[in-house]
Design goal:
With 360 residues, this protein is mainly α. The protein has 17 helices and no strands.
């Protein structure tokens, strides 16, 4: 451990400190949000629903309606968040997502009997409603950890939800190739895996109050924003290039690896900003002045000149009866609060202000 209570890097203590910081909670929430946009890629696997289950366009519209219904009805996750911890909300979302979309995948691959339309509507609504649990757990934890920057937090996390559809497409092409049924399997296990991996990371940390005169510390949020813009630009370029040039499976693997590197790059920013530097440390580092020695003391502050008038009898009796003020009076450390309360008692018990209240 370095001087001043700072933990040196590349040690288990430093890694533990990074994982337990507020900024790592933001990074984990960004990853969860990036996997919460499975409802935006319904058009990619709706064709396989029509071909393998024999659905027409009217049936697909019903499925799309129940998918949107499950995505937008978030009151259940909000009520659960009020009575349960964040890890329970994330686990419920992981279980619902895995169960709903896994049943759809089993029906598509013929491993189960072909379900009726109403049951398929229930499956897709149940799986889509799981995303509200993931979003609620991540958003509430980040907003409570950064109450002074709640607008920046919400906007940043919601931006990754918008990018999640393109992220799903790149990962699906790299892992399964051009197989729409396997895309449903990816939608089933990927959000659930991220929820389980971050179940003990996304949480509400103890509130750290700012010092007087300090503003909100938003510099790491700008780093996250710049990385999200780089990720969006990369996805845009890849989509345009893949429409013009034929990519092999190995090429999709390379582009998806670069995508994951950009997506996980904010972890370096969160580790570098695990603790907020204090103003004293920033000024000391900027000026490069040597720290004062232990024997060097500050000059004593001049004492405030007070009146030597004697208070009334009621104030003296009250000061003597007060254990705190009487002990301070005997030790010669009478505080202004004791004198103010004595003067207030004099004003209340007498018809005219006494000498102590007049001096105040």
């Amino acid at each position: 451990m370095a001087a001043g209570g700072e933990v040196s890097m590349c040690t288990p203590a430093f890694a533990r400190r990074v994982v337990q910081s507020r900024w790592f909670v933001v990074f984990a929430s960004m990853v969860v949000m990036a996997a919460s946009g499975s409802t935006y890629i319904f058009a990619l696997y709706s064709k396989v629903l029509r071909s393998k289950l024999g659905y027409n366009q009217e049936t697909l519209n019903k499925l799309s309606f129940f998918k949107d219904l499950g995505t937008n009805v978030g009151i259940i996750s909000g009520l659960v968040q009020q009575v349960a911890p964040t890890w329970a909300v994330l686990l419920i979302g992981a279980a619902m997502n895995l169960a709903g979309y896994l049943m759809i995948y089993l029906a598509l691959t013929g491993r189960t009997a072909e379900p009726p339309v109403w049951l398929m509507c229930f499956y897709i609504c149940f799986g889509a409603n799981a995303l509200t649990f993931s979003n609620t757990g991540a958003l509430v934890a980040c907003v409570k950890n950064f109450p002074e920057s709640r607008g920046i937090v919400i906007g940043l996390l919601k931006s990754f939800v918008g990018l999640s559809g393109a992220i799903y497409t790149q990962l699906y092409l790299a892992i399964y190739g051009d197989d729409a049924a396997s895309l449903v399997l990816l939608v089933a296990w990927l959000p659930a895996a991220f929820d389980i991996l971050t179940v003990y990371t996304i949480r509400v940390l103890p509130d750290t109050r700012r010092r007087d005169g300090e503003g909100a510390y938003n510099t790491p949020f700008y780093h996250f924003l710049y990385l999200s813009l780089v990720l969006a630009a990369y996805l845009l370029v890849m989509i345009v290039v893949q429409k013009q040039v034929h990519f092999s499976h190995a090429a999709y693997v390379v582009t998806s690896t670069a995508l994951l590197i950009i997506l996980l790059a904010p972890s370096a920013s969160s580790s570098g900003r695990s603790t907020r530097p204090s103003p004293s440390s920033r000024s000391r580092c900027s000026s490069r002045r040597p720290s004062p020695s232990k024997n060097q003391r500050r000059p004593p502050m001049p004492r405030r000149r007070t009146s030597h008038r004697r208070p009334c009898a009621a104030a003296a009796a009250w000061a003597a009866a007060s254990p705190t003020c009487s002990s301070r009076r005997r030790s010669g450390r009478t505080t202004p609060s004791c004198r103010r309360w004595s003067a207030w008692r004099c004003w209340c018990c007498s018809s005219s202000p006494c000498s102590a209240s007049a001096a105040r």
